[in-house]
Specification:
Oligomer: single chain
Strand order of the largest sheet: 1-2
Organism: Brevibacillus aydinogluensis
Order of helices and strands: HHHEEHHH
Distance between the termini: 21 Å
Strand content: 5-15%
Structural class: mainly alpha
Protein name: LysR family transcriptional regulator
Shape: elongated
GO molecular function, one term: DNA-binding transcription factor activity
InterPro entries: LysR_HTH_N (IPR000847), WH-like_DNA-bd_sf (IPR036388), WH_DNA-bd_sf (IPR036390)
Family: Belongs to the LysR transcriptional regulatory family.
Radius of gyration: 19 Å
CATH topology of the domain at 3-84: Arc Repressor Mutant, subunit A
Number of helices: 6
Largest sheet: 2 strands, antiparallel
Length: about 120
């Protein structure tokens, strides 16, 4: 499995619908179906089955979706760590703040950061 597989499984688990998951992933529904069939072949088991309004994951599929979420987090943490090993700090800043704080106080705080810090691209 690679990062794209982990993301595909996780999005599908959240959406419970192949068409909506494909739309969120910006790929065609046949391409997502092909990827999922290859994963089922790789693991030698069914990961989900179709129901009236979408899909339902098997217990193996649920385990794999949980694993995918863990691996996505670990990969992002590794990317952030490696980027921060260099002299300049780069990456994505993730904040959890109230809407009032975000609207009234956060802009003043962000203005104090150097422009190059705010506009640099992250991997």
């Amino acid at each position: 499995m690679d990062e794209k597989d982990w993301i595909a499984i996780r999005v599908l688990y959240e959406e419970k619908n192949i068409s909506r998951a494909a739309e969120r992933l910006y790929i065609s529904q046949p391409a997502l179906t092909y990827r999922l069939k290859n994963l089922e072949k790789e693991f030698g088991t069914r990961l989900f089955f179709k129901i009236k309004n979408g899909i339902e994951f098997t217990s193996e599929g649920i385990y794999l979706a949980d694993y995918a979420e863990e691996m996505i987090k670990k990969l992002q943490k590794t990317k952030d760590y490696i980027l921060n090993m260099q002299k300049e700090v780069r990456g994505t800043l993730r904040l959890g703040v109230s809407s009032n704080f975000a609207q009234y106080k956060l802009p003043k705080i962000l203005k104090s950061f150097p422009i190059s810090f705010l506009t640099s691209s992250s991997a």
